[in-house]
Amino acid sequence: MREKNTDILIIGAGASALACGAELAPKAKEQNKKIILLEAQKVCARKILISGNGRCNFTNAAAAPCKYYGDKTFITEILKQFPPAACLKFFDKLGLKYISENGRYFPIAGKASAVKECFLNWLENYGVQILENQTATEIKHKSNLWEVKTQDTIYTAKYLVLACGSKAYPQAGGTELGYMLARQVGHKIKMPAPALFGFDLQEKKALIRIAGIKMQARVWLEKHPQNKQTDEILFTTRGVNGNNILTLSRNAQAGSKLFIDFLPQFSAEDLHKYLTQRASNLPNLKTKALLSGILPDSLINLLIDFAHLRKNNKLIELNPSNFAKIEETLKAWPFTVAGIRPFEEAYSAAGGVLTSEVDAKTLHSKCAENLFIIGELLDVDAFCGGFSLHFAFATGISAAKNIGDKLCKI
Predict the structure, then answer these.
(1) How many Cβ atoms sit within 10 Å of the Cβ of residue 62?
(2) ∠ CA 375-135-33 to the nearest 5 degrees?
(3) What is the rounded CA–CA span in Å between residue 170 and residue 168?
(4) Helix 15-30 crosses helix 113-125 at what angle (to 10 degrees)?
(5) Contact 19, 66 (CB under 8 A)
(6) What is the pTM of this model?
(7) Which whole-number Å values give the CA distances from 399 to 20, 39, 178, 210, 402, in the listed order?
C-alpha cells in the first residue's frame, strides 16, 4: 500500500464535492494546505453532465424549504446560508455565464460540461488534485488524523468530507459507498428509496393511443392532493414522464392513483362556461368538435370513449351529465401507477445519513471529529428543477467555509 498525506480529503468528485473544493481552494492555498478529491469512477462529475437533459439546471430562483423533502429546520438553515442569489454569485466567481428560463438557471453554452469545466479550471488553478479510480473502502480516525484506505493507497488528512452521493442512477456513478463509510463512524442511515423517476401506468391500452403527446398539465397523487405540480408531461407506451411527474415520484407506489388536469389554464367554472358556450355556438357539429383546437385529437378520442359518449352525436344532444363527465375527466383524469422504477431509472434517492446527526450550520458530523457530510448522501431530496444541485452546492460551500475557518485558527 502506498501512503499519501494531505490536509483536506474529500471522498467524491460530484456536485457537492466540487463546490466544497472550489470554495475552500483559495483559503487552503493561502494557508499552504493541500486538498485532494477521491473519485471512485473513471470520470468525475458524471451526474452533473446528465442533469437538466444534458444542459445542467444548476439552481432555481424558487429554491426554498417547500421544494425539499426532509427535516425542514435543517433545510431552512442550509438555504438561509446559501440562497439562489448566493449560488449565482458563486458561479460568477468561477466564470460561468448563464441564462434564466422561468427561474431555472442553465449555462449559456447550453451544455452541462460548461459547469464541470468551470470547476475543473478553478481547482487546477489552485492546485487541488482530483484522483480518479480511487475507491475508499475504510475510514477511521486516530491520532487526530483521518485515515482512508482505497484499493492501493492509504491517505491521511486532518479534515475529511464525505461527498459520495446516493445510490441513484448507478450508470452515472451512483453507489452505496457513502452509506457504508458513514456507518463505519457510527452514523445511522435512513433506507434509501428511488426518487425522481417517471411513472409506469396500468392503462396500457389507453397509453398506446396517446403515446407521444406532450403538453402542459397539472398532476397530483390521490394521497397527497396538496402537492399539485404543473409542467409539461410526455406520454409513452409505458407511462408518463416530465419534471412534475418526477417531483411526485418519491411518494408513489404500486397502485397509487395519479390524477391529471389536462387543462390547468381553466378553472372548473371557466371550463364549464367555455364548453357550454361552444356547444351552443356549434350545435350541429359532432362531439369531437367540443374540444378541437385545445386538445390533441388522440386525447379527445380517448376522452370520448372514457366518458362513454357517442362520437357521432351532435353537440346539441349533450346533456348536463355529459358535460359534467367531460369536465370532471379533463380536470382530474385518474390513472394508476403500475410500480416504482428501480435505482437505475431514478435520478435521485430519498433517504440517507440522518440529518439529526449533522450540524446544519457547518455540515460537521455529530458522531466524529473533523468529519463533514454533504450533498445527496444526506437524508434530503428535492423537487425536479435544479433544486437538488442547489442543495449539493449549498452544503459543499457551507462545509468549506467551516473548514476554512478552522484552517485560519491552526
Answers:
(1) 16
(2) 70
(3) 6
(4) 20
(5) no
(6) 0.95
(7) 7, 19, 17, 48, 5
Sequence spans of domains, the chain: 2-195+343-409, 198-340
Instruction: Indicate the pLDDT class of residue 410, thresholds 50, 70 and 90.
Output: low
Rounded Cα distance between 32 and 21, Å, is: 15
Comparing CA positions, the residue from 242, 238, 253 lying closest to residue 200 is 238
Cβ neighbours of residue 32 closer than 8 Å, sequence gap 6 or more: none
Residue type, 304: I
> Radius of gyration over alpha carbons of the chain, in Å?
25
Q: What is the pLDDT of residues 75-100, one digit of tens each?
A: 999 999 999 999 999 999 999 999 99
Q: How many CA within 13 A on the CB side of residue 164?
A: 21
- The correct CATH number of 2-195+343-409 out of 3.40.50.620, 1.10.150.20, 3.50.50.60, 3.40.1080.10 is 3.50.50.60
Q: Determine the pLDDT at residue 306.
A: 95
